[in-house]
Amino acid sequence: MSGLRWLEEQTGGGVQQREFMLTRGDRNVPGVLLTPEHRSAGKPLVLFGHGASGDRHQSPIPYVARKLVTESGFSALAIDGPVHGRRKIGDGARGAFAVEWRRDGCVDDMLGDWRAALDAVQQLHDVGSGPVGYWGLSMGTIFGAPLVAAEPRIRVAVLGLMGVTGPTEFYRQRICDAAASIACPVLFLMQLHDELFTREQYLDLFDRMASEDKRIHANPGLHPEVPVEELDYSAEFLTRYLAGEGKTRRKVGFTVSQ
Questions:
Q1: Which of 53, 144, 155, 230 could form a disulfide with 93 if both were Cys (CB 3.0 to 4.6 A apart)?
Q2: In the 3-class helix/strand/coil scheme, how is 31-81 assigned residue by residue?
């Protein structure tokens, strides 16, 4: 396929993992695709966005991705963020990202990378054009919220570890506008003792999301201390909606005795 070059492949534990490099104009987009060893096209695909200082394999992406592949028969796609992983610049961490985040076009370039990668893998005979979900925390929400807002193929999203903030007024407005355009079901994860984002910033972002089917899960702990049970729930949440089993939640009315 034009622009897509396979680099490495390994199979084990019921998962086929393929590393690739996608060329999009003057940008090289490194990524990894995980699929069941034996599958047919048309099953759901989940996109994974990693956090700053990480890459396409940053924990807990492999845990959640492999869970979806082995237990639900889904595919999983993760790409390196700008200045991270195989396109590392400087420290390839928060220092380099702080500079990149201020660059004009940073978000649009990353959205273009995601859409090009999604287009490419959906053309593969063992992936196809089935339902698409998104999972991304921290930097995975910095880019993921605008992606979920802009990409109609995404039907459900797990976001979080992020609030209304940013290095420039332009980005802060961008994330607010994105949240106001997110209408798909959303699970939003929050850490109550996050050292990077305040509770007010978290809630501001969550409140701005337009989805009528959204829920926030808040847990004690610092930014990276998301409980494993929340990771398991996020996989179940994505599976339920991408399998067409998501339903509007019923509200129970309470009767107060006089």
A1: 53
A2: EEEEEECCCCCCCCEEEEECCCCCCCCCCCHHHHHHHHHHHHCCEEEEECC
